[in-house]
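--- STAGE predict ---
source: upstream dedup step, 1 unique chain passed
mode: sequence only
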Amino acid sequence: MNDVIQWFPGHMAKTRRLISENLKNVDFVIEVLDARIPQSSRNPEIESICKDKPRIVLLNKASLANPAANASWKTKLTDKGSHAILTDCVTGEGLSQIKPAVTGLLSDKIERYESKNMAGRKLYAMVLGIPNVGKSSLINKLSGNKKAKVENRPGVTTDKQWYSTSMGIELLDTPGVLWPKFEDKKVGENLALTGAIRDGILNVEELACVFCGRMQHDASCLDMFCGRYKMAPEKVLSLSAYDLFLEVGRKRGFLIPGNEIDTLRTANMLLEEFRNGKIGRISLEG
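--- STAGE serialize ---
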């Protein structure tokens, strides 16, 4: 699967060029976002590159995100040139809405085809998205095969590929790309928390502490966090983010000799349980 973390301007420029060169070969764009962080997972370059190209925006992993936030983002990201859909590309939820949305967005083009006795002509779409938002799962679901590699972390594939679907739509896969510099620290945190940035190049203990702090200060998440780790809200709010992180490890019995907390094990557990929805349906952007 073409999920590649790009850290250098040269890589970004190459990917931008690849996308720009192939836009003329497609009828519309499918932009895949992480529903938990729609703004942070939206590459700021995409808007200027795609310009007026019709767009289907998939708020993927919607089953892991807060339902109220999902509804709000769906409204925000739907306008006359784009249509937002809440999806789960693993289960296939919401994917049946793609074809009707495409028919609506491309009604003029489809009517022209029909007027020229070309009814049923295939449509072509470019699939765009940063690493780990679910492009592989989307392509596998729509193409009915397992050719696109699926991993729960950014992969390393760069060749563009076409995939056929039963909807009469051909999908062009493109490299997933992260921008070289995050102007907003919170954007970088959001991408790291959801797994768009490799854990192997991060301090996961620090990241887990950031997550604990977010849970303390988000009223919609506090009860879920307390319920999962069997802690009273008053207790959670009385601790620093770091002490809360240690308390979670203590509650789980993650101890090492000397009665110290195994911070690495605690951090990995916290991040995994958030990413897999075990704590609850959490959105990091409201």
